[in-house]
Amino acid sequence: MALYDIPISTLGGSPSSLAPYQGKTLLLVNVASKCGLTPQYEGLEKLQKTYGDKGFSVLGFPCNQFAGQEPGTSEEIAEFCSNTYGVTFPLFEKIDVNGEKRHPLYEQLTKAEDAEGKAGDITWNFEKFLVSPTGDVVGRFRPQTAPEDAVVVDAITANLPA
């Protein structure tokens, strides 16, 4: 199944998918509000502001699987992201990214390898997947790689739609 066809709800609870983003370069990130890496929201928002009008979007997927660092409700998550980091990029429903209840979207994403050739489970909050405008996963960046790191920015710019 193509990434665009997998059903997922928005943070507000409306049924959706990635279909509205087909043709764009996407950075999919499992996010959390109470993590040492939470300040990466700032870098993600900078990417959204810098490249959003060039056919790019960050998509956030809250996840509470890592040390319970995303315990809030959808409303609390939305309020935190908006008030603390001014997040304007789309956020989706809280999901599992590992284990038996792993969301089908992450079943697909975790098949992608990182720069060291390692695929499989998400290691922590803020793991990033770069998806080309044709729906191919073209990059996987581990949580410690900041959104504004040159390797991420270079990959985004190399994959922006023509």
SSE string, helices as H and strands as E: EEEHEHHEEH
So what's the CATH class? Alpha Beta
CATH topological fold name: Glutaredoxin
Strand content: 15-25%
CA radius of gyration is: 14 Å
Find the count of extended strands (DSSP E, 2+ residues): 6
The class by helix and strand makeup works out as alpha+beta
Taken together, the total number of domains comes to 1
- Alpha-carbon distance between the termini? 25 Å
* Large-scale geometry: globular
| Quaternary state of the chains | single chain
Based on the coordinates given, report the CATH architecture.
3-Layer(aba) Sandwich
- Low-pLDDT segments, ≥5 res: none
Q: Give a quick account of the main beta sheet: strands, pairing sense, barrel closure.
A: 4 strands, mixed
Strand order, largest beta sheet: 4-3-5-6
Q: Could you characterize the architecture of this molecule?
A:
This protein has 162 residues and is an alpha+beta fold. It has a single domain, classed as Glutaredoxin (3-Layer(aba) Sandwich), CATH 3.40.30.
Keywords:
162 residues, alpha+beta, Glutaredoxin, four-stranded mixed β-sheet, two-stranded antiparallel sheet, 4 helices, 6 strands, 17% strand
Brief digest:
The protein has 162 residues and is α+β, with helices and mostly antiparallel strands.
Per-chain topology:
Blueprint: E1 8-9, E2 15-16, E3 25-31, H1 40-51, E4 56-62, H2 74-85, H3 104-109, E5 128-131, E6 137-141, H4 150-159
Parallel strand pairs: 3-4
Antiparallel strand pairs: 1-2, 3-5, 5-6
